[in-house]
Amino acid sequence: MKKLITVGLIAITIAITTMPAQANLKTRTMVPTLAILDTALDTSIPLIKSRLVAEVCILDWPSCPNGSSFMEGEGSSVLPMNILSNLNFSHGTQMASVALQSNPNLNIVFIRIFGNTETGERERTGISTLVNALNWVNANKDQYNIVAVSASQGASGPVINRQPNTNYCVATPLDKVIFDLSNSGVPVFFPSGNSGTDPRMKNKIEWPACISQSIAVGGVSVNSEIGKLSKPRFNVQSNYDKNLVDLWGEWSSNSIYPGNISGTSFGTSVSTQVIAAKYVAIKAAKPNLSSAQLILLMKSSSNLVIGSASQKAYLFDLRKAING
User: Fold this and answer.
1) What angle do CA 51, 25, 191 make, to 5 degrees?
2) pLDDT by residue (tens digit) across 194-226?
3) pLDDT at position 166, please?
4) How far apart are CA 33 and CA 212, in angstroms?
5) What gap in Å lies between CA 222 and CA 24, rounded to an integer?
6) How far apart, in whole angstroms, are the C-alpha atoms of residue 154 and residue 189?
7) Neighbours of 257 (CB within 10 A)
8) By three-state DSSP, how is residue 305 classified?
9) What is the per-residue pLDDT across 226-277, written as a single tens digit (0 to 9) for each?
10) Would you say the C-alpha torsion 35, 41, 46, 47 has a positive or negative sign?
């Protein structure tokens, strides 16, 4: 959520294989599916268990449950509860629950992209992990009816200390993978970042949201700690680039933590899941529109929110998009 993850520039590749659908997970091919890339998942939570159609583990390190860097099948995304529930790994469960509370009619494919040490620390994740995870999505999108990808743990990269009007987003092998998925009709949603108050990040968003082919999501505050705000407010912690932020979603949401504990989650991580889940809802409601047309519809169905420094955010309105 508020913690940004540095993605190391390492070049490790792993073999990705396409395997049959998991025998004990009911694949609903007619139901649109959101692929979520994140830390780990509590698959025992009823809300999540009822909508989970596949689990995958894709890492740079041999710390998947099977002792390798790749695993597909039941249990691939799971960790022992003492690790799953700590701050390093609870994020994935929160994000899956946020997506489902924003759209209870979608299915989930969960891809774990963070390895763990024995003491519950995160192992470094490289660009190769994201590349391999999205390649897996591309190879399996038809089998699971994957119509969108959300990755709320991709943020932070080599984008700071550059002039605002330059191409501050460094090109990597991830660009082409996102381009290929987008061209196939599967948009990839990333958070704009939560470092908006950092002067080095003025008018910049985090990597990989800054990649032009991705869908960058910013955050707007609708609720405060004491209840609903009288009107939405631009959240100054959300990174901002008037040319690169594509859509804006709610900054906070009710969520579920490992152990089926109710809570609240914050940040553009939440915004990303909310927007991706609502995209899936519009996709189901308007199946004849292309992904590009749906994104344009979402942009035109958003309400202006002006920040104190004249930033312009546009909070997406699902009802306006569906009903006109």
Assistant:
1) 45
2) 999 988 888 899 989 999 899 999 999 987 665
3) 65
4) 24
5) 39
6) 10
7) 19
8) strand
9) 567 778 999 999 999 999 999 999 999 999 999 999 999 999 999 999 999 9
10) negative
Distance between start and end Cα atoms, the chain: 32
Rounded to an integer, what distance in angstroms lies between the CA atom of residue 259 and that of residue 243?
A: 40
**Burial, 66: exposed, middle or buried (Cβ in 10 Å; 0-12, 13-18, 19+)?**
middle
Q: What is the pTM of this model?
A: 0.89
DSSP three-state, residue 32: coil
DSSP string, 267-292: SHHHHHHHHHHHHHHHHHH-TTS-HH
Is the confidence at residue 169, as pLDDT, over 50? yes
- Measure the CA–CA gap between 194 and 114, rounded to whole angstroms: 20
**Which stretch of DSSP H or E encloses residue 151?**
strand 146-151
Provide the 10 A C-beta neighbour count for residue 21.
15
- Convert the pLDDT of each residue in 32-79 to its tens digit: 999 999 999 999 999 999 999 999 999 999 999 999 999 999 999 999
Q: 31: closest CA among 281, 293, 274, 319?
A: 281
The pair of three-digit structure tokens given for residue 87, joined into one six-digit string: 């701050």
In the predicted model, what is the mean pLDDT of the chain?
A: 87
Q: 89 with 79: CB under 8 angstroms?
A: yes
Domains of the chain: 33-323 (3.40.50.200)
pLDDT at 156 (0 to 100): 45
**139 by DSSP, 3-state: which?**
helix
DSSP 125: -
8 Å CB contact between 270 and 253: yes
